[in-house]
Every structure is written in C-alpha cells, then in structure tokens.
Design brief:
The protein is mainly α. The protein folds into 2 domains: about 45 residues; about 110 residues. About 60% of the residues lie in helices and about 0% in strands. It contains 8 helices and no strands. Helix 4 runs parallel beside helix 7 and helix 4 crosses helix 8. About 30% of the residues are buried.
C-alpha cells in the first residue's frame, strides 16, 4: 500500500470542528511522547473515550513496558506481519532497528519465516507470540521460557503488546492509512 489515491476513510479532523472531548484527546496525544496524530489516531478520535484509553495503553506499552524495547518491537513486527499491516510495519521496522533488532530477523519475519539468526531472548518472544497467535494460548514449556526471561509482569505486558497491536493493525487496515508518498509497501503478500 503506497499513498492511497482514494480519499481517506477517516480524514483528519479539523481542530475547530472537533468536539471538546476529541480536542482534549488529540491534544493529549500530540503533546505526549508520540508527538503526532498519525497511525490509528485519526480513526480513533471518532470515539474519543476509546481513543483516550487506547492511547494510554499504547503509551505504556511503547515507553514503559517491562519487556525490553528490542523484544517489544519484535513482538510488534510479528503482529504487523500477521495482519499484513503495511503502515504498522513501516512505522515499527525503523524502531526495531534502532532498538538493536538484527535486520535479518525482521527480513525473515517479513517473508513469513521463523528467523534463523535470533538471539536466545528473541526466540523466546518469537515462540511465545507465534504460539499465542496460532493456538490462542501457549503451552507450559513456552510459558515457562517466557516467565524465566521476562517475569510475570513482562509476560502480561507481552500479551498486551500482541493484543494492543492487533487493534492498531486492524484500525490501520480498515482505515487504509496510507504510507508516505513514495514509500513502497514493505510487506509482500504471503501464501496463506
């Protein structure tokens, strides 16, 4: 998905046309660590109470999670690939690289493969996220490995990262949030 030639499904709201609740949430998001209203936020502003709650969860998961940033970004890329969420991949691939994820790991995920060159902690997160997505739960061995790596809070935060970015990816896909002009779609279709 490159720049969308169609009008946006949820066009940016004019600040003067926003309800007080929308304006309050928009200002909270724009003044926070994200600094803008890109991604899912224009769509979410149509439901300002939900937008406020979701953006607070997202802020916690991105900036305060018990899951180390590199592993958090790995979980986000796994989720983006699962949803074929082009914008999500575009936005978080760069963050994953900045956090120290090996580009080869991201490339394998983009191709729908289990990465060959993961570090041990990455393999634990990959297995947990993949098993959770495929089986709607995880087995005892997978859970034990995740608990040994992340502790109870980290495992709960990892579950939340997967779920939150499912919502983000669904929103981006339904809203057809376009990539910036000139940016090619980073994810190729996978045989399913």
């Amino acid at each position: 998905m490159t720049a969308n030639p169609r009008p946006p499904r949820f066009p940016p709201l004019d600040k003067d046309a926003m309800t007080p609740a929308q304006r309050q949430v928009a200002e909270a998001i724009a003044s926070g660590p994200r600094g803008g209203l890109g991604g899912p936020f224009q769509a979410w502003l149509r439901s300002p109470d939900l937008a406020d709650r979701l953006q607070k969860v997202g802020e916690y998961l991105r900036f305060s999670s018990a899951v180390p940033r590199r592993l958090n970004e790995l979980a986000i890329l796994i989720t983006a690939r699962a949803w074929d969420a082009q914008y999500e991949w575009y936005a978080h691939h760069r963050m994953a690289m900045q956090a120290g994820l090996d580009p080869a790991v991201a490339a394998d995920i983009a191709e729908g493969r289990r990465p060959a060159a993961m570090q041990a902690d990455e393999a634990v997160v990959y297995d947990f996220c993949s098993e959770l997505r495929a089986n709607r739960s995880v087995g005892d061995i997978t859970l034990a490995a995740a608990l040994a790596l992340l502790g109870e809070q980290g495992v709960v935060d990892l579950i939340a990262v997967c779920g939150y970015y499912d919502v983000v990816s669904m929103t981006l896909n339904v809203a057809e949030v376009a990539l910036p002009d000139g940016v090619p779609a980073p994810l190729k279709p996978l045989a399913r």
